[in-house]
Amino acid sequence: MSKEATSQEILDLVCEICGDDCVYDELDLDLFEEGLFDSLAAIEFLVEVEERFGVSIAPTELERQEMNTPQKIVDRIMERL
C-alpha cells in the first residue's frame, strides 16, 4: 500500500472513531479540545490501529499532545510502519 493510501486509511479511521468529516479538512484540529476524541475513543482507535496495521501503541506510550490532531496521528502511525 502506498504512503498516500495508508495516510488516507488512517484518516478514515480517525473520522470513523470521532464521527466527523472535519478531520479531512482540518489536519491540525485538536480532537480532544473539540470533543471529538476522549480517553475511550483514543483507546478504541489504538485497538483498531493494531488490528488494521499491525502497529501496537500502548495508551501510556505517547503523551496526549503527541496524538491530538489528525496530522500528528498520521505521522505517529507512519513512523511505526
Top keywords for this entry?
single chain, 81 residues, mainly alpha
Helix share, percent: 55-70%
Q: Output the structural class.
A: mainly alpha
State the separation between the terminal residues, measured CA to CA: 11 Å
Radius of gyration: 11 Å
Report the principal-axis shape.
globular
Question: Low-confidence segments, ≥5 residues, pLDDT <50?
Answer: none
The sequence of SSEs as H and E is HHHH
Strand content: under 5%
The count of strands amounts to: 0
Continuous helix count: 4
The biggest sheet, with number of strands, parallel, antiparallel or mixed sense and barrel status, is: none
Oligomer description: single chain
The pLDDT mean sits at 92
Q: Can you characterise this structure?
A:
By secondary structure, the protein is an all-alpha fold. The model has no long low-confidence stretch (mean pLDDT 92). The protein is globular and about 30 Å long. The chain contains four helices and no strands.
Mind sketching the topology for me?
Blueprint: H1 3-18, H2 22-25, H3 39-53, H4 70-80
Helix pairs in contact: 1-3, 1-4
Briefly say what this structure is.
This protein has 81 residues and is mostly helical. Helices cover 57% and strands 0% of the residues.
